[in-house]
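cron nightly-structures :: item 1 of 1
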Amino acid sequence: MIGITKGLMEAWRLISTFDSEIYGIIGLSLIVTLSSTVLSALLAVPLGVLIGSNNFKGKNIIVRTINTLMGLPPVVAGLIVYLLLSRTGPLGYFGLLFSPGAMVIAQVCIVTPIIAGLTMASIRLKIKPVKETCQGMGLSKGKTTRLLLHECRYPIISAVMAGYGRAISEVGAIMLVGGNIQFKTRVMTTAIVLETGKGNYGKALALGIILLVISFAINWLIHSVQEGKSYEGRSVKG
């Protein structure tokens, strides 16, 4: 109990005094996770909309592949990216291994299927009534797509936020491709693992507290989006 109390006191000291190393780790974590989430959203949302709103040959295989990749073990994704970016790999020429760029690539591989799968699922729920309505009104395909995106905006936002939550909590893949190098590729999750192993519980708890606050904020935003959707639906019915 004394050890926990001392750790919490040290954690509070590090947070309240704006320790440069702690906030540097937090800053890099936010840069990497926001970058990977934005890139993943740019790839995954159009892909999810395209697959969810159209029927074509081989669609079932693609859907099953995306659903499988949603549960891809992070260390497997990290291993694949590591092999691609290593000196003997096809992308070794760019020298990205053990850099923030490699960490972003690994997280994109993990987050993209999640956002795509959730977007695809939300589109599939709405596509039939939206298409029937638009056909009855004689609207063009472009306007139908815009209406579909409008109807699915809340689930899509929730999908992106869920992807960010997955990115901010990732450990295995970014440790493999980033190397957990101090002042270069060390982020909150990898630093927590390292500092706990070294017995620096104050630093680990400080980062853990910040990570919990960020996770709470993400969940709060998702809940707020869903509440906004429910309120809007009740207002329309009223």
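cron nightly-structures :: done
The chain has a mean pLDDT of 88.
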